[in-house]
Amino acid sequence: MTTVSLPETMKAAVWPGDSASLTVERIPVPRPLAGEVLVRVAACGVCHTDLHVMKGEVAFPGPAVVGHEISGTVAEVGPGVVGYAPGDRVVGAFIMPCGECAQCSKGRDDLCLTFFGENRLKGNLLDGTSRLARADGTRLSMYSMGGMAEYAVVPVNALAHLDASLPLEESCILGCAVFTAYGALAAAGLRAGESMAVVATGGVGSSIVQLGVHLGATPVVAVDVSDEKLAGARALGATVTVNSLAEDAVAAVREAVPGGVDVVFEALGRAETFELAHALLADGGRMVAVGIAAGATAASVPITQLVRRGQTIRGSFGARTRQDLPEVVALAADGGIDARASITRRYPIDRADDAYRDLADGAVVGRAIVVMAGGREAVSER
Ligand SMILES: [Zn+2]
Ligand SMILES: [Zn+2]
Fold it and tell me: pLDDT by residue (tens digit) across 94-116?
């Protein structure tokens, strides 16, 4: 095992399990076991999925360290890890595949049975245990790698090397927002020249806009309830923007794209946005649902329209980590996604709770990140 000098303790934003808040605590620095890498976290993205956990909308055992979208440098590698050494710049994806289960064997890392069984249901890493505990020894669950902390243990299958040309902190969003967007575009099979719409242009939605523009979709329609978010989407390349509070979104989109849209992404996970996304589809159109809904939310779809018009609706949760994460990094290095342009707010770790509060209030345009080394900085906004 190769080691750089590690501190005994670190700051981590701990979710107590019984309220939608985070408290920064000092807890022991975790150590990697076989097949794992300890990452010194540079930054962690602030994502709605963590909020669902914190609000109790998704069953998850607390107390826990949330945060599932990280970048940083390798601090230590566990036994059996090849290809990574201390100091390497890396990004970690929120889906951490075991590489061995029936789904992983088929290349469907996005459906890894071990990851969903151990991590998403129990808050463990893939071997069935957590690496995190409080200073008094009580166990802390890990939501993905528990990235809202100065160090995080990540299974090596969930890591990719970060190209030297890419910014270390901002690139954390490659691990969830961009990764999820990439998976959605792959699920849609979007081709250059097809029309595309994104309903809800937050962190994931704005990444879908950027990647769709890069892949040659035209026109690219953004639908949201916030003029500020729509202006952000336009800056990222959307050519048509529709405020669904201010106007009839279906009529406005159908006027801009006669016949309807070839590929529509739903990135919020509410019944009304799901139904709106479907209503925008062209004959033969494909809809990809990306937004996670609270609990047992259901939407209704007109059956005859779906059948008669040969439309497709499919879900996409993430992407196939081992195959796709390096592709996401390569796309970013190629200019297909500008992580810096997506990030509008930076918070120090001590203000992680404020970051999620602002996200819950709808105040975040694009993506906010928590920067670990920025402990003394004030919140900055561009
Ligand atoms: Zn996320
Ligand atoms: Zn697996």
Answer: 999 999 999 999 999 999 999 99
Between the CA of 293 and the centroid of ligand 2 the distance, in Å, is 24
Report d(CA 9, CA 88) in Å as an integer: 22
What spacing in Å lies between the alpha carbon of 78 and ligand 1's midpoint? 26
Q: How far is the CA of 193 from the centre of ligand 1 (A)?
A: 29
pLDDT in tens, 18-41: 999 999 999 999 999 999 999 999
pTM (two decimals): 0.92
Strand 159-161 relative to strand 196-199, pairing? unpaired
Q: Minimum-distance ligand to the CA of 148? A: 1
Ligand 2 center to 225 CA (angstroms):
38
Name the CATH superfamily for 179-315.
NAD(P)-binding Rossmann-like Domain (3.40.50.720)
According to CATH, the superfamily of the domain at 9-175+338-381 is Medium-chain alcohol dehydrogenases, catalytic domain (3.90.180.10)
Spatial separation of the C-alpha atoms in residues 158 and 164, rounded to whole Å: 19
* Phi, psi dihedral angles at 381 (to 5 degrees): -140, 140
